[in-house]
Structure formats: structure tokens, C-alpha cells
Amino acid sequence: MGNNYTWGLNPVRDTLLQMIVIGVDISDRQFKSELNTIFSLIIENHLKNREDLVYLDFKVKKTDMHFKVIGNNIVSALWLSGMMPRNPTAVYEKNECHIGGKTYTFDKKKKILISSIVK
Prior knowledge:
two-stranded antiparallel ribbon; 3-stranded antiparallel β-sheet; alpha+beta; globular
């Protein structure tokens, strides 16, 4: 069984899906700059300080059957997951964020978000 996709919950994911459906190879190095611009436009609508876009850092990997967009720091990983921390600088410096009853940290070696329930 698969998961249902809900449109509108994560504008970054929605945009990526739309591009893939129309045949864009989002892993193409020449497209990286355009993808960065698209993500910046989406994210800046949620930021108090546009200069926080400096934390947007990601890579795109392509395997035989799918693409994987990987945040290279906690702020990028949160943004790509559809979560918009209020103070990206503090989140980046602490490598920790509290959103929706969960604490998120970022494993810098594995490049993954780790969540734990706040008790």
C-alpha cells in the first residue's frame, strides 16, 4: 500500500511533483540554479528576513526510478519538508527546532532530520 498525496500541504513538494510530471529532470546540474530560484520564491513568502535564504542549501540525487532532494543543513531540510521555522538563524546555530509538539535535529553525516516527540 502507498500513501495518499495531499496537494497544498507542502508547496516545495507540490512544485517538485509538478516539474517531474511535465518531464523536467530536476537532477540536471544546469537546472540547479533555476530550482534554487524557485525554492527561494516559495520560501521567502514565509520569512521575516529575506536574508535567511542564505541557509537554502540542497542537492538532488537521481536513481533509476526516483529523485531525492536533500537538505544540507537543518533549515534547508525543514524548508524542503514544508516546515518554516520562525527564526532560521537560531535553528541553524542550535541544530534544533521545535514545531508541532516535536523536536527536530539534523544528522549532518547522514543528511536527515530526526524527530522526537516533546514530552
